[in-house]
Amino acid sequence: MRKGRATPSRRKRQAEATGASGNVLTRVSSGTVEYFQGVMAELRKVHWPTRDEVQRLTVIVIVVVMAFAIVLGGLSFLFTELFSFGFEDPIILGVTLAVLLVLGFGYLAYTHRQE
């Protein structure tokens, strides 16, 4: 048996059931108030870290960021020097790139070998 019309969405049925009452200003302000009440309810559910946890995690983040900065700075320095030597003497650049390619493919073969 066909109805001859589309089935209304659940949201539309809920909106029709509750009925939007009041003028535009009332609906907007009540929606905004409900939103912030929901935000406050969710914030009350949050497990906030203790002061010691915050300090410990802050130290971890700072140490990790500094370590990565040093590693990336070192890599940047190495590649800068490699290319400056490579442009002065292209053989150095070619040999270095060949060695890196062999090491890279060797690593891939080693990690993906059939056991």
Task: Summarize the entry for a quick read.
Helix content is 79%, strand content 0%.
Description of the structure:
- The structure is a single chain.
- With 115 residues, the chain is mostly helical.
- It has a domain at 51-111.
- The protein has 4 helices and no strands.
- It has helices at 10-18, 24-45, 51-88, 90-111.
- The radius of gyration is 32 Å and the shape is elongated.
- The relative contact order is 0.03.
SSE order in H/E notation?
Answer: HHHH
Counting DSSP H or I runs of 4 or more residues, the number of helices is 4
Report the portion of residues in β strands: under 5%
Average pLDDT score: 85
Q: Poorly predicted ranges (pLDDT <50, ≥5 residues)?
A: none
SSE map:
Layout: H1 10-18, H2 24-45, H3 51-88, H4 90-111
Notable characteristics:
mainly alpha; 79% helix; 115 residues
